Every structure is written in structure tokens, then in C-alpha cells.
Amino acid sequence: MADTEINYDDAIDYWTSTPATIDGVLGGFGHTSLPKTDVKGSLSFYNRVRSKYPEFDQSSNINKRALDVGAGIGRVTKDLLSKICDKIDLLEPVIPFAHQIPVELERANLSNKLGQIYKIPMQDFTPNEGAYWIIWCQWCLGQLKDDHLVTFLIRCKSALQKDGLVFVKENNTSTLNDDFDEVDSSVTRSDASFRDIFIRAGYEILHVELQRGLPSGLLPVRTYALRPIDR
Ligand code: SAH
Fold it and tell me: What distance in angstroms lies between residue 58's CA and the mean position of ligand 1's atoms?
């Protein structure tokens, strides 16, 4: 299995040596159409989920709190979550990235949206019980071994508010296999592998979409809205 090759220290070393910029967290695609296309796609995905699942849309008028997982320098928080949530906590174990988060948010006049920054890797993190309306995981779940991803997603279930959802937006392989990427010691999973992991963690897929309009040369990117089966 590709995920057995993952080494967590190698991954942190790689990201720590990467510039704390949009280009850094997007693997050199920061100056392409990628960031804009990504955010536009995420917003319309979110809107489709709201209309498909009214309980989610109506569930959190008081405390729309989100957790941005593997947040990098806070790009998803700044461009997406701050537009749809009241407060965002961010999880980012790489210290130079974590330090850049408040800088980016202040520059965008969004400091009021910033909650906690947890400098802890996903595999060691337990989010607070019942805290979140949205848990957003983007371009970071490949850093976890399969079993650790399943247990992380299980912990996320108890961290959701009633009718809250987990969103996963990740690259997929174009085959049925998962591929190890030695650059950042991660795996790229097939759509089938993700579905298997979601089932093991006790989620159903409420909605899934392929991101359109990506620059050429990139892998397919899918967004999944996940609802716990057993709550
Ligand atoms: N989600 C952000 C950043 C993507 S880059 C965005 O879309 O802009 C991948 C991020 O995953 C990096 O910030 C890296 O530091 C983080 N990461 C790597 N290993 C991790 C781990 N074990 N737990 C949490 N985050 C991790």
C-alpha cells in the first residue's frame, strides 16, 4: 500500500522548507488561474450543498464556526471560509505557515474572523466536541496514512455541530491506485480509496463534484460533502 511509505517527519521538513506564500502552498501554481478557480468552485459547491441539505443551511445561525484543516498560510480561510462563517480555527503544524496566518488575515482585514491556531498535526489532534459547523480539509489529507485518516475523520464526527458537515477537497489519481509522492511524503488517493475511507470512518457522501476549469497538467480534484451516518 502506498500509504506505508509516508514519513511524517519528512513531510514536516518538506513543508517547513517551503516559502510561506500562496505559491509555496500551491506547489508553484499560485500565480496561475488555480486559486481563483478553486475558490469559485468551492463556493458554488457549498451553495449546492446548502440547497440540497436545508438542515445544514439552517442549523447554525448563531455560531457558524469552521475548522480549516492543514491550513497552510490560511488561503482557504481568507478566500472562502471567512465569507461563509463567523469564526475560523486553523490547524497547521508547520510553524512558519502558522505564523503567517494572522499576517495574511490582517492584510485582508479579516482578523475578526480568526479563532484559534492549533500548531498540531492531524494525527495527534482531537477537535473540540460539537464545535464546528464546517470542517474543511483541502490538499492535506494525503499526508496521513490510511488508518490515521480514518481515525482523524472519526474524531471529526464528534467535533461537528448538529447538522454540521465535513468537506474534503483533494487531488485524485486518474487510476484505481494510490500513488506515493516522495516530494512531500504524501499519497494521492483514487476516488475509490477516498470512498472506502469515508465508509470506514462512518460517513455518507451527501454531494460530490469534480472541480472544473483547472490549469492543464493538474490531477483531477474532487470535493466531497460528508455527513456522519451514526449521529
Ligand atoms: N489547505 C491549504 C494548504 C495546502 S498545502 C490550501 O489549500 O491552501 C498542504 C498543507 O498540509 C501544508 O500547510 C502542510 O504543512 C500541511 N500538513 C502537512 N502534514 C500535515 C499533518 N500531518 N497534519 C496537518 N497538516 C499537515
Answer: 30
Based on the structure, what is the number of domains in the chain?
1
d(CA 36, CA 51): 23
The single-letter DSSP state of residue 64 is -
28 Cβ neighbours under 8 A, 6+ residues apart: none
Q: What type of residue is 80?
A: L
Can you say how many angstroms the Cα of residue 15 is from the centroid of all Cα atoms in its chain?
Answer: 16
Query: Ligand 1, residues 25, 181, 221: which to mutate, most atoms within 8 A of Cβ?
Result: 25
User: Where in the sequence is the domain holding 66, given as residue range(s)?
Assistant: 2-228
Identify the CA nearest to 95 among candidates 147, 20, 171.
Answer: 20
For the chain, 231 residues long, the average pLDDT of each consecutive 10-residue run is 96 98 96 97 97 87 91 98 97 98 98 98 98 98 98 98 96 96 98 98 98 94 96 65
